[in-house]
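Q: Structure for this?
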Amino acid sequence: MQTLVSLSNDLASAVERAARAVVTVHARPRLPSTGVVWRPGLVVTAEHTVRLDSDIRVTWTDGHSAPATLVARDPGTDLAVLRVAEPGRPAAELGDSGALRVGHLALAVGYGPRASWGVISATGGPWRTWRGGDVDRLLRVDLVLYPGFSGGPLVDAAGAAVGLVTSGLSRQLELAVPASTVSRVLDELLTRGRVSRGYLGVGLQPVALTEAFKRIAPGAGLGLMVVSLEPDGPAASAGLLLGDVLTALEGAPLHDPGDVPSAIAGRPVGSTVRVSLIRGGSPLDVTVTVGERPSRKR
Amino acid sequence: MERAIGSGIIWRADGLIVTCAHVVAGRGGARGAPMLRLADGRVLRGTMLACDRRVDLALLGVEAHDLPAAPIGDSDRLRAGELVLAVGHPFGLIGAVVTGVVHAASGPESRTDSPWIRADLRLAPGHSGGPMADARGRVVGVNTMIAGGLALAVPSRIVEALVERCRTR
């Protein structure tokens, strides 16, 4: 029984330690969300819960409340950064999100503090969110994300924050953004005000390549037909036309409609990329200068 | 004839059983004398000593003096994140255990307006009236309902207060 009691105490202590850096974020009507003091004076929360751009307040678990200003948002990874003039308030102890293994105990801490308990249920490699953000590692958790938990820390058994939980990146799965991604995005938002992502400015539709096409472009897997072009966007400026069928990027055949955005998003803005395509029955290579994805209109 | 079943807690060895009001009282009022089946197989008829629908608690008396009473814990000292477990008969399955953690601290010190213990624990119908216990196995609450995915339990402090009121009456 002593083992169970000490596990119980350890869990409660982990919640307490994590809760020192947990705040209530009042940035939307009705239901508040949770935030974490990631570094002194800087609160990270889930971007989708920040509906206000001003008049935001945060409240610590001891009841202390302070105004917060929105520094920047990255809808891609569902992260927003707020600044609070409270340098004395402790920042979260950060853990190594890369060391998490399937089956490790994990807690999610919501404002209050409130606790939810479970395990890391799956891990995976880097992935791109449906909002276009790059996440270092897939972290799926088997725990309940109660209303208002988004933006709260994923806490390991020692009470260290190893990620940020959010319901904004998947409707079905309970996911966490690893601490390494939070820190990286935070750095980028602080230095540049945004996370820049490479962009071609084309809308693509997958098309099955007929034998005739495959003779023209040997080794091609899937064709992606240009069905829309951003006016004056990178692809339009490079001379791509509606109806062009893309078959390869930098010589690598395309197999999935997601291949183009994932290959482009990680490239530095201003770099060039060789796009192989079929136009009017003839193969053609076009060099496109990667542009920066415009910020989402809110 | 098996009707809806719930769970109950042996609160005192001299025959005091605690359960939920909604387990023993139908909509039309007290259902009379519920049958109680103990873990050792004994079947006893209970008499209603007190029923407080407001806090969803009922006290039953049985003719016995040697019952294994549950150790009672302190519901005011629960910490968010500490382990709790619930024992009950979900969907008629006798003695099933679920584990979870305290969702939010309760008690006079906490800044919550909820009178219940809230736990991140998966209850099911049939758990009602059964114990929520801490890691030492001490009863800290009586499972009463599920709300928003959370298990709610009436704190043992409130149960003790009802027991006291019942005794002094």
